[in-house]
């Protein structure tokens, strides 16, 4: 085996090992959500809401839309991947009382409530930081800061592991 192939194999094993850590998965989902957030923020601020948000103004409506779209994106991927191991247990626990769509809506509601603090923190920090820097950079900084609270709230509440019955 060549040294390059050995290095690639080690890197692949490291990536596979890291995928087992829930916070790493959450971070990867968050990174995809950041891309979604920034794309929607830019498109909405520069084009969609240009009449109500001139380019030099604060991105109030654009930021709200970007956060909403990114929240749906992140909920979907976190549900499918980050907390997939808990999903079946959660669904089984609620299956008798709720339909599949009710469970999904309930989880989305919990996810949104659990993420509320992070969403409010991101929104407020972004608007405050736009006094000192470009709105896109301000948004990235605010996302990084808010991500820790979002992980903890969702790990301990939305997708919590049910106690054994």
Q: Report the helical percentage.
A: over 70%
Distance between the termini: 51 Å
Low-pLDDT parts are none
How many whole angstroms does the radius of gyration measure?
19 Å
Q: What string gives the helices and strands in order? A: HHHHHH
Shape call: globular
Supply the number of helical segments: 6
The largest sheet is: none
Overall number of structural domains: 1
Q: What is the beta-strand fraction?
A: under 5%
- The overall pLDDT, averaged over residues, is 84
Report the structural category.
mainly alpha
Q: How many E strands?
A: 0
Can you describe what's shown?
With 165 residues, this protein is mainly α. The chain has one domain. It is built from six helices and no strands. Helix 3 packs across helix 5 (100-129). It is globular, with a radius of gyration of 19 Å.
Observed structural traits:
165 residues; globular; mainly alpha
Give the SSE layout.
Blueprint: H1 3-18, H2 22-48, H3 60-82, H4 84-95, H5 100-129, H6 135-158
Short account of what is shown:
It contains 6 helices and no strands. With 165 residues, the protein is mainly alpha-helical.
